[in-house]
Write a structure and sequence with these properties.
InterPro entries: Acyl_CoA_acyltransferase. This protein has 94 residues and is of the alpha+beta class. The protein is built from two helices and five strands, in the order ββββαβα.
Length: 94
């Protein structure tokens, strides 16, 4: 699965058969805030969403950013995958 970083729209994007799946972000200092998941209407394939989030986590690790998960679905993903808790800034607990 290819994840595109659309810096103009400030979102990570991938194409699924139903349409565009994206995760919006914003930056502040060396932190990336994942703010919203946009999915095609009626799209509920959680396994694909998790796969997209894992790919985004790999990008965040590669770029050495700290993660601020804002969207509840992303917070739940971090709780289910505690290996990514190391991306959280000091003092942030979920």
């Amino acid at each position: 699965m290819e994840i595109k970083d659309n810096t103009f729209a400030r979102q990570f994007e991938t194409i699924v058969p139903e349409g565009l799946l994206s995760v919006e972000y914003s930056f502040q200092e060396k932190k990336i805030f994942l703010t919203k998941i946009n999915k095609p209407e009626g799209y509920e394939n959680q396994a694909i969403i998790d796969q997209v989030l894992k790919s985004i986590m790999d990008i965040i690790i590669e770029k050495k950013f700290k993660l601020m998960p804002i969207h509840p679905r992303i917070v739940l993903f971090i709780k289910k995958n505690p290996v990514y808790k190391e991306l959280l800034p000091p003092g942030i607990r979920i």
